[in-house]
Protein 1
Amino acid sequence: MAKRLFNGAEFLITETSPADVFTPEEFSDEQRQIAQTTEQFVINEVLPLRERIEHQEFGPVVDLMRRCGELGLLMIDAPEEYGGLELDKTTSMLAAEKIASSGSFSVVYAAHTGIGTLPLVYYGTAAQKEKYLGKIISGEWIAAYCLTEPESGSDALGAKASAVLSDDGKYYLLNGTKQFTTNGSIADIYTIFAKVDKEKFTAFLVERTTEGLSVGPEEKKLGIKGSSTTQIILDNAKVPVENVLGEIGKGHKIAFNILNVGRLKLGAAVVGAAKKAIGEGIRYANLRKQFGRTIGSFGAIKEKIADRCADIFAAESLVYRITGMIDDRLATLPQGAPDYYVAYQQAVEEYAIECAIAKVYCSEALAQVADDVVQIFGGYGFIQEYPAEAYYRDERINRIFEGTNEINRLLIPGIILERTMKGAIPLQSKAMKAFEALMSPSFEEADDTVAFAAEKRAVANLKQAFLVVAGNAAQRYQAKIREEQELLLALADMVLNIFAMESALLRGEKMLQGASEAKRDAVAAAVTVCTFEGNEKVAKAAKKAAFYAAEGDTLTMILSGIRRYTKYLPANLLQAKRTLANAALEAERYVF
C-alpha cells in the first residue's frame, strides 16, 4: 500500500507523488491468486451456464453462489470471528472486477456480497451475526437489499414503507412495497428499510419465510436478464424486534454508508466488464475483413480501440488508487475495538467523493466501450449470437445502480463545498490564490527531461482552473449553490476527469520503471491519450460552469484563465493512438 494517508478530495489542492498511490501492478501474490481463482471459476463454471442463466433459470444461479461460498469468494469482507476472511478492500474490488465477465451472474454476486452482506457486517449485533452471517458467507442463504420504492428512488428518505410495534412488543409489523430488489426471488434474507411510526427511518433483517412477506413477479428488463429483480411486498410482515439492524431512526446511516462501498465496487466491476468487451471487439477487428483488409488495420477502428483502452486504463487506475487510500486508512484502526466498525465507516466515508467519481467515470467508460464494440461488430453487433449485443444491453443499468450518475455528480461538488464550509478543505484560500495568479503572466514551462512533464503541468493547471471556476461559483451563489444543479454537474465533470487523468498519470510514471521498450511506449501512449481527452472534457465543463456562474468582466477574466489553464499540446497524439491500438491488436485484448 501507499505510505501517505490522504484526506478525501485532497488531490484537488495538493501534488501527489507516484510513490503515494497504489496501482494494479502492486497486487500481492495472495490478491493475484484470488483473482485467478475467480477468473477460472467464471470461465469453467459460470460461462458454460450463461445461456440458461440469461433465460432466468435460477437453480444454477443459486448453485453457483454456493460454489462461490466454497471458494471463499463470499467471505472476503466478513470478519474472521464469524468465519470470514476479513481481507482488504483492494482484494474485494479485484474479485468483483474478475467476476464481472460472467454477465448477469456478476450482478447477483455483487448484490449479495455488497449491499446484501455489508449492512450486517458493519451494523449487526453479535447475536445477529452469529445467526445469519455464516449462512450468508457460505452461500447457504442469498442476501438482498430493499431500499427503493415505487415512488422513492434517489430520494431514499422519502420511503413510505412503515413499521409499527405490535401490541405485545415482540414484533414490528412492516407494510409497503419495495421496488427493483436485486436477488428478490432467490434471496433468503433481506435488509429492508421502513419508517417506525411513519417517521424513524430504520433497517430490519427480514427472513424470506416471514409471515406477511411476499415476492412479486420478475421484472422484464432491458438487460442483466439473468439476475432476479422483483418487488418485495410487505403486508403486516411480522419481524421480531431483535431483527432491528442498527439503531431505530438511524437507517439513513446504513443506507448511505453502504452505498459508498457499493459505488466503488460497481466501478471495479464495470472495469472488468469493459476489459472483457473491448477484448471481444479487438479480436473481431482482427478477423473481420472489408476491402481486402482486416478492419483493425483501418485508422477509424484503431482510434476507437485506442480511446477505449485509454479510458479503461484511467478507470482501472482510479479504482485501485481509491482502494489503496481506503486500505491505508483502515490499516490504522485498532481491530477488535468496541467501536471498530463505527471508525471503519468513517474511514470509508472520508472517500465518499472518490467513490462517487469511480461510479460515474467507470460506468460511463463502459458505456462508451460497449457502444464502440457494437460499432466495430457492425450489423453483427445487433445479433444475439454475437457478444456485443449483450454487453450493450447489460451496460445501461450501471448508470442507474447505486444512485444515478446525476445524483453522484451532484454529490461530488456538494460534499466538497460542505467540507470547505467546515474548514476540512482549504478551498477558499486556494481559490483566492488561483484568482491572484490569473492577474500575472506565467512563463513557466514544462521540463522536457522529466517523464510526462507536459502531462504533469496539464493536470496541475486543470486543478487551478477548477479552483478559479468553483471559487467564483461559491462566492456568487453561497449556500444557494445547491439549487444550481446544472452548475454543480459541470463542476463535477471537472473534478472526476481531473482525478482520472491524474490517476492514469501517476500509474504511468510507476509503470515506466523497469519496463520493456514496448511496454514503455504503450504506457506513454495511454497517458498521452488520457491527458488529451480528459483535458478536452475539463475545458468544456469549465467553460460551461463559467457561463453559468459569471458575467461581464468577471466572465471575461475567467474564460481567459480557462484558456490558459487548459492549454495542453500533446506530443505526437496520432502516433500515440496508433501505438496504443497496435499494442492492443497484437495482444488481442486490453493490453495493461
Protein 2
Amino acid sequence: MKLSLGIDTGGTYTDAVIVDNESKIVLQSAKSLTTYPDPIGGIRHVLDKMPADLLENVSTVSVSTTLSTNTVLENTGEAAALILIGDSKLLNFDDQKAVQNYVIVSGGHDHDGTETAPLDTKAIEEYVFSVKDKVSAFAVSSYFSIRNPEHELSAKELIQKLTADGEKPAYPVVCGHELAQSLGTYERGVTAYLNAMLLPVTHRFVNAVVSEIQRRGLKADIKILKCNGAVSGIEEAMEKPVESIFSGPAASLLGASFLSGRDTCLMIDVGGTSSDVSMVENGFPDISDAGAVVGGWRTKVRAIRMETTALGGDSQIWIRHHSLSDSTVQDKIKFGPRRIIPFCRAASIYPSLLDSLKERWFADRYRFSEFVQPVRFYIRSGNPAEGLTADEQKIYNKIKDDVPVSMNDIMWDLSYVPADILKSLVSKKLVNMIGFTPTDVLHVLGDYNEFDTEAAVLAARITASFLDTDHTELCRYLKQSFASKMAQELVYFLAEKGLADNSENIVVTSRSDVFSARSQFEAAIDPNLPSSKPFRESVKMVLSFKKPLLKYKLNIPVVLIGGPVKAFADDLGDLLDAEILTPDHFEVGNAVGALVGKIAKRIDISVRTIQSESHYVVKTSGFLVYFPGGRRAFVKREEALEFARALGKQMIMEYMEKESVPPEKVDFKMFEEDVSISKGALPFMTKFVFEGFAKNVF
C-alpha cells in the first residue's frame, strides 16, 4: 500500500493528512497549532497524532504553507537590500518608503540588450559595505535584464566577493531575471527584494520539514507546493521562496476541488491571518499573468488569481478611540489587519490570564488604539532582543516570557501611553499580542469550542461594556459582519473575472415582495465596473443587511475551506444566492490540496527582429533570441526559430529530469505567436511559451 502525506503550515494551524494513492481516500487527518518562531514544533505535534503504521508506508510528502504570505503581510521578513541598476528616471521606483535599504546605480541595457551605460561597480561596493551589517541578503534588478542579464550577474558576483569572510559564506544574492522573464524592472526588483527577505524564513521552514521526516525514518520524496498550483523540489523552493507566497491558498483551492468533486468551483479559505478567494475552472486553477499582489507589493510571480483580505480567525478586534460617544458600534469597532493570539487560546495555555482579566482592565477609552485595548496582553515571542532603544528596552523589560502582562502592568509607573513603542516591539517580532478575535466570537456563540469558552465570554463582556451593548448581541453582529466581508470578497472576485472573460457567473436577483426597493440600489445591480469605488461601496451596502433586499446570485458552487469556517455557512447563505458547500475534511483541505499539485515548468523565450534605418530604408540586420539567463544572435530567422524551439523543450526536459520525472511521463506543450507591426512585414517578435506537466501523486 502506497500512501502520501500532505502537510500545510499556516499562520495558526499546522494540518496533516494521509491519503491512499489508489483509492484517493483520506485515511487520517490531524491539526496542531503552528509554533513560532520555529515551525518544527507544530509539524512534530501534528505528525505525532498520525498512526505510526500509516506513516511507515508514506512514499511522498508534499507541503504547502502560508508562512511566506503572512511574513510579507506582516512585514516581518529578514532585512534585505535592493540594488537597482539603470537610469533612475526610467526605473520609476516609487516605493522608497516601503523598501528600507536600497540604492540606484548607473548601468543597464536597452530593449535590444545593448549596454546603455557601464555598470557602476564602485557605487555597488560602497553601498554593500555601508549596509552589509544591517541585512542578511541582497536583491539586484537591472533595466532590461530580461534582454541581457550581464549587469545583474556581474553585480551578484561582486556582492558575493565583498560579503564572503573566511569560512563564513557570502550573502545570498537574488537577481530579478532569475525569477521573471517579463518586462518591468521595478516589479522584478520588488520580486527579487521579497525573495531575499524570505530566504531565511523559508530555509528554516524547509529544514524543519526535512529534519522531521528524516528523524522519523521516512523514506519519502519531499515536494513543496508553489503559488501557481505546481509542486517543486526542496532545492528550488529554498532558492525561490517568493514562488510560495500564495502556496497556502493554492493548496486550499486544489483541496476544495478535490474534496467537493467539482472541477469548477469558487473557494474561500478562512485562515488565522487572512481570507482568500480563488477559483478552479475545468480542473485548472485560474492563473493571473499580471503577477501576484500581496501586502501592497506587485510582483512578477505567476500565481493563482485571488482576492485576499487581512481578515482571519485570529485578526484583532479593537475599539477605536475617536467619536465614541456619538458613533455607532459599526464605527467604534474594527477588524484587523494584524494577527494576534485569541484570548480563549491564550487562557487555555496560561490559566492565570483569566484571573488577571477578572480583577482589572485598562479603562481609559480615550487612549485606545490598535495596541492599547481593554482586553490586551503582551508576552515575549522568544526571539533575541537586539539593538533596542532605551525606551524600547524599558517597555520590553516589563513584558515577561512565561506569563502574559496586562496593559495596566505595562503602564503602572509610566506618565505616557507607550503605543508607538509597543508597535515597534510587535513589528520586530519581539513580543506577541493577546486579545479579542473572531475565534473568541465563535466560542461565545457556541459555534466553536476548541479552547477556553469562559475566557472568550469574559473578553466579549469587557469589550461590549465599552460599546454600550450586550456581549452576545455584539458577537452576533461581529459574526454577521465577518460573513458579510466574506460575501463581498466573493462578489468582487467573480465580478472582476466576469469583466475579464465575459462570463456570466454572477447576476443580481431581488425578492418579489420588495421589488420596488430595487431603484435604491441601482448601482449595485450592474457589476460592469468592478474596480470602481461606487461598485464596491454598493456591494458593501447590499451585503451589510441582515436580510438583504437584493441578493447576488453566483452560478458556480462556493466551497468553504479552513478551521471553523462551517460556522459561517448559514450567514453566508443569507447574504448570497449560491450553493454553499462544506465537504468532508474541509478543515484540512489545504493539506489535501498540497498533494493534488503537479510538477510543472513554464519557459518563455522570444525571437526579436533587429532592424536598422539607412537612407530612410528599413533593413533587417539580424535576429536575437532572448531566453532565461541569456541571449543569442542569428543571421537567419529560421535558424533563430529552430534554436528557440529546441532550447525551450531542452530546458523543460532538463527541469523534469532534475525533478526525477522520466521523459515518457512529461506532457509537453509549445505555444508560438507572431507579433507584427504591419501586414506583409516580418514579425516584430515571435513569442514562445513552453510548458511541461507531470502528474504528482494524483
Protein 3
Amino acid sequence: MGGPLKNFTWEIMSGFPMEKTFEAVSNFASGLAQLGHTRNERAAIFADTREEWYIAMQACFRRNITIVTIYASLGEEALSHSLNQTEVTTVICGQKEIKKLVDISGQLDTVKRIICMDDEFSSNVSLVKESWTVTSFAAVEKLGREKPVDADLPLSTDIAVIMYTSGSTGLPKGVMITHGNALATVSAVRKIVPGLGDKDVYLAYLPLAHILELAAENIAAAVGGKIGYGSPLTLTDTSNKIKKGTKGDASVLAPTLMAAVPAILDRVRDGVRKKVGWIVPKDYLKLAYNRRLSAMNGSWFGARGPERILWDILVFKKVRAIDLLFCPDASNACIVITGKYGTGAPIGQGYGLTETCAGGTFTEYDDTSIGRVGPLLARRGYLTTDKPMPRGEIIIGGPNVTPADEKGMRWFYTGDIGQFHGDGCLEIIDRKKDIVKLQHGEYVSLGKVEAALATSVYVDNIMVHCDPFHSYCVALVVASESAVQDWAVKQEISFNDFTDLCQKDETVKEVLASLVKEAKKARLEKVEIPAKIKLLPEPWTPESGLVTAALKLKREVIKKTFSDELTILYSS
C-alpha cells in the first residue's frame, strides 16, 4: 500500500462544508428509524476506525440509541458473546466484518439488520438467514434523506455506549457509559488543554472501539476541529505499509493533535532508531537527548534556554526529517507522540480506563517532566492534600465514572498502585494483578520488568512469566527480525531462515545479554531479570489472538499457546 489511507475531516467531508456532515448524521439517524430500529433497541458498530463509524455513532446518539462497540479483531466467541449479551438488533459494519457475522449467524439470537459501510457486499451475504435485512450505509442515508425523522435527543443519564473491552483476560466485558460520562471527560480536557479550536486537525488511527480514541474524536468535534482517518500501519513515512519514497498519514494530513498508546510509541521509536544512524550517530543522539532533557527540566536557563536550542539545530531538526508525526513545523503542534526524541512539541500524558471514560488525569500543557501522568482532571470534591506523596490503590470518582451504586456514588477501583507528587501529579508505580510472588517470597512486577526489557533493540514484544514454585523468572521474546538478522550478518552467522536463526544458541545468548544490559540500566533486582528466554520468530498481532486490539498482552492466551515452551524453560 503506498501513501496514506483515505482522509476525512469533520469540517470538510468529500469537499462539503460542516453542514453536510451534520446532514449525513441526520439522514443516517432518520434512515435507522425508517428501517424500524427503535430507541429501545441497541445497535452495534463492528468495524475498523473510519468516517462512517463516527457518523453512525452520532446518528445513533441523535435518536437516543445505545451503541455497542466491538473491536474488529475480536474472535467468533467474543463477538457472539458481545452481540447476544446486549441483545443487539442492528449491526453496522464493513464488508470484511460481514463474513465474520455470516460464520456465526447460527449463534446470534437477536440480530435483524446488517448495515454495510461499503457499497459492495461479500458474496457470503446471500448465505445469511432469511430473517436478516442487509443494506448499505449509503442506502440508509438516502432513505433518511427522503423521509426525515425528528431527533429524539438523550438525557445525560441515558446510556450512550456499551463499550466492550478487548478481552485481555478472557471474554470481553461491557462497560456502560452515559452521555454525562462522555461530556464530563470532554469538558475536563478542554479546560486543561488551552487553545483547542476549529483550526486543529486530529489524526485518527486507533480503534474507535477503544475509549481513548472515542474520547479524543469527541473532543476534536466538540471544538469544531477537523478529523483525518488513517491507520497504524500507514501512520508515518517509515510505517510497514508505506512504499519507499511515499508519505505516511501524518505527513500528508499535518495534524496538530493525535493520541497514542505505548505500543504505537514503541513502533515509532523503533522506526526512528532504524533510520537515525544514517544521519545522526546513535551515541550522539543519546547524548543530545539526555542533555536536551536536562535543559527542558531546568538546566542552563530552563526549557527554552540556549542549550535546548543548540541541540534542536544540531540534532533534532535532522531527526524530525526522518519521521514526521506532526505538522512540518513542530512548534505548531499541540500534541505529538515523538517527544522521546525531542520534537519540541508539547505532549500530554494521561491516565484512565474504560470505566472512567478515559478521563482520570492529564498532564498540564507546559509540564515537561517524565514518568508522571498529571493531576486529576477538573471535577468537584477531590483534594490531594495528604503529604508527602501518599501511596495506595488508585480509586477514581467523579461524573466521568460509569454508574456504580444506587446511592449515586461513583467510585472505580483501578487495580493500579500510584503515588501523588507534591504538585498534585500522579505517578503510576505498579499494578496489583501484575505482582507475582516467587518461591522464596520475592515479588516481581511483570509490567515494570517488561517495560524495561522492551527497550532492547532485539525485542519486538516480550512477556515475562513467573512461576511461584521457582526462584527465577523466564521470558518469551518476539525477536525483532531486522535487528537480529543485522547482528547475525555482522557476526557472519549462517542461517536458513529467521526461524532457524532464533533457534541458534548464539542468538539466544546475544539477546539474553542485551536484556540483562537493559535490566541493569533500569536497576532491576536480580530476581526480576529473566534467567532463561525463548526466542519466537512470529509477531504477536490482534489477528493471532495473542494481543488485544490496543496491543496489550493477553497473558493467559499466550501462556496457553506457549505452554510447552514455558515448561521447557523451567525444566532445562
